[in-house]
């Protein structure tokens, strides 16, 4: 069952207020930073009106506020998780290349990492044995 718009706006407003508080800013300072009137900003925090996209973009641009959390109440931990997985893959790839004495041009190595990462984002796990096959195909 879908939430009523007011319930959504109340929760959205509460998350905006929490973000502002965590930044240690007054409502007036936040409104000024976002380029909106204090009265409009207060109506967003109170859940009376939806915050415009432009203000959300500014909130993210200036303060690196997680918009996924502001809009949906869910943290965007995926970015950190994805980068950690990519780093782990690249370490494993470098280790394999070093141990096997295989040399690859950087663009070929990059293509392997990009293909693996794309599959990772799509939720299709690629076994390192398959990556080793790619390496053999691209070997210099």
Automatic annotation (TrEMBL):
<dbReference type="InterPro" id="IPR001387">
    <property type="entry name" value="Cro/C1-type_HTH"/>
</dbReference>
<dbReference type="Pfam" id="PF01381">
    <property type="entry name" value="HTH_3"/>
</dbReference>
<feature type="domain" description="HTH cro/C1-type">
    <location>
        <begin position="16"/>
        <end position="70"/>
    </location>
</feature>
<protein>
    <submittedName>
        <fullName>Transcriptional regulator</fullName>
    </submittedName>
</protein>
<dbReference type="GO" id="GO:0003677">
    <property type="term" value="F:DNA binding"/>
</dbReference>
<dbReference type="InterPro" id="IPR010982">
    <property type="entry name" value="Lambda_DNA-bd_dom_sf"/>
</dbReference>
């Amino acid at each position: 069952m879908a939430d009523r718009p007011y319930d959504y706006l109340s929760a959205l407003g509460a998350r905006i207020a929490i973000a502002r508080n965590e930044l240690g800013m007054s409502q007036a300072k936040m409104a000024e930073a976002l380029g909106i009137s204090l009265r409009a900003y207060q109506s967003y925090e109170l859940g009376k009106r939806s915050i415009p996209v432009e203000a959300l973009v500014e909130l993210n641009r200036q303060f690196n506020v997680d918009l996924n959390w502001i809009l949906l109440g869910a943290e965007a931990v995926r970015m950190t998780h994805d980068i950690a997985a990519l780093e782990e893959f690249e370490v494993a790839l470098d280790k394999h290349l070093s141990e096997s004495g295989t040399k690859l041009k950087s663009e070929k190595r990059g293509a392997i990492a990009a293909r693996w990462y794309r599959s990772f984002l799509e939720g299709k796990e690629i076994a390192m044995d398959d990556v080793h096959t790619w390496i053999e195909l691209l070997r210099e």
